[in-house]
Amino acid sequence: MSFIRPGHRAEQLVDELCITSAADLDVEAIAFDQGVEVRYEALNGCEATLVGYDTKAIATIRRATSRGRERFSVAHEIGHWLLHRGRSFRCRVDDIVQNYSSEVALEKEADEFASHLLMPTNILRPIIKSLSKPTLQDLQRVANDFDVSLQAMSIRLAALDILPVIVACYGHNGLKWFSRASHVPSKWRLKRLLDEDSFAYDILNDRVEGNKSGKQSADAWFENDDADDFELLESSMPSVSGQVLVMLYLNDIEMFERGYSHYAKKG
Ligand SMILES: [Zn+2]
The IrrE N-terminal-like domain covers which part of the protein (predicted)? Predict the structure, then answer.
């Protein structure tokens, strides 16, 4: 049995439906086309459910304050319907990041499907390529165009692997999650707790209102001893639940060369 990546399956569907712009990514219309009726209800204890009967399914989605969140849930349930036919689902996770780090393979597959359905590579890539060293504010505008959350867009950006970025989320207890473009050397290890010199620290501790972006010493972000040899671009923004979302843009090519030579010596 051949296995098609869930993201690839989602992008195939976008192609089949001849969707070529973010504005045409109508997730309810896609659901309808695939035999899924979408209902919105005030669900308790779960984000969405999927119940299938023969060739039809009903996806029940919890009303959310964010439209991006609702759209992601609909896309996630379409993913279950197309990838995991014959089962019913009760998706209890309340944000994509919990799914993202969870052990539940089917939930991860549905999330990957949703991420690619709402942000297909062929539509997103040229938009990202047109941006020069984007900040989170720039990325927020792209997220708005795609009607997805900034968090979902930032994770998708790292997965696209066309910009030298690491995105991460910190709370008062430290690092919640991070996602790194795969060409960024993994030798650069994020600090578990925010450094007092980071803009993110100022935002989390209410020393700065709103967003802050600019040049930053890599030493403020990485545990590595040689981090103070480098500068990067930090863009930080307040996020949900008193957390802060961070995008680090590694614009110093030396950080890549140093990383790879380090590997070579080890290997
Ligand atoms: Zn699910």
Answer: 33-157
Tell me, in angstroms, the distance from the centre of ligand 1 to residue 184's CA. Answer: 30
Domain total of the chain: 2
The answer on 141 and 107 residing in a single domain is: no
Question: 158 CA distance to ligand 1 centroid (A)?
Answer: 22
DSSP H helices in 147-198:
150-160
**What residues flank ion ligand 1 with Cβ within 5 A?**
89, 91, 107, 110
Tokens 């997220």 sit on residue: 143
Q: From CA 247, how far away is CA 116, in angstroms rounded?
A: 20
| Residue 107 contacts residue 63 (beta carbons within 8 Å) | no
* Domain housing 172: 123-266
Task: Give the distance (Å) from ligand 1 centre to CA of residue 170.
Answer: 25
**Vertex 260: Cα angle to 255 and 261 (nearest 5):** 100
Residue 91 and residue 28 in one domain: yes
pLDDT, tens only, 159-172: 999 999 999 999 99
CA of 126 to the centre of ligand 1 (A): 30
Look at the chain and count its residues.
267
- Mean pLDDT, residues 198-223: 95
Please report which confidence band the pLDDT of residue 4 belongs to, taking 50, 70 and 90 as the band edges: confident
